[in-house]
Amino acid sequence: MKKIEAIIRKTKFEDVKDALLEADIEWFSYYDVRGIGKSRQARIYRGVMYDTSSIERILISIVVRDKNAEKTVQAIIKSAQTGEIGDGRIFIIPIEDAIRIRTAERGDIALYNAEQER
């Protein structure tokens, strides 16, 4: 199993969400996050432009089976990429185990409905 974390532009969230659903990734978490990076965002407040070093982004967190990791990464890249500085990053982290609390199932079967696999 792999945990895929992607930090993307807020404006690309809907595109990424649609691409993940199209790739049969139906469950993920996302968070509003702020970070510091090379790109700067200008904000306009009451007609005055402010430069800020804090960049607003979305962090998407997904745990997938090994066989679904590459298609998940490719879906994110294709849908989040603009070619500009600040498109974001993807991190792939190995997951040792997963446990479904309701049934105590362990391993990658805990990620999905076993009935759908049969």
TrEMBL record:
<dbReference type="GO" id="GO:0005524">
    <property type="term" value="F:ATP binding"/>
</dbReference>
<dbReference type="InterPro" id="IPR002187">
    <property type="entry name" value="N-reg_PII"/>
</dbReference>
<keyword id="KW-0597">Phosphoprotein</keyword>
<dbReference type="Pfam" id="PF00543">
    <property type="entry name" value="P-II"/>
</dbReference>
<feature type="modified residue" description="O-UMP-tyrosine">
    <location>
        <position position="50"/>
    </location>
</feature>
<dbReference type="InterPro" id="IPR015867">
    <property type="entry name" value="N-reg_PII/ATP_PRibTrfase_C"/>
</dbReference>
<dbReference type="GO" id="GO:0005829">
    <property type="term" value="C:cytosol"/>
</dbReference>
<dbReference type="InterPro" id="IPR011322">
    <property type="entry name" value="N-reg_PII-like_a/b"/>
</dbReference>
<dbReference type="GO" id="GO:0006808">
    <property type="term" value="P:regulation of nitrogen utilization"/>
</dbReference>
<dbReference type="GO" id="GO:0030234">
    <property type="term" value="F:enzyme regulator activity"/>
</dbReference>
<dbReference type="InterPro" id="IPR017918">
    <property type="entry name" value="N-reg_PII_CS"/>
</dbReference>
<comment type="similarity">
    <text>Belongs to the P(II) protein family.</text>
</comment>
<protein>
    <submittedName>
        <fullName>Transcriptional regulator</fullName>
    </submittedName>
</protein>
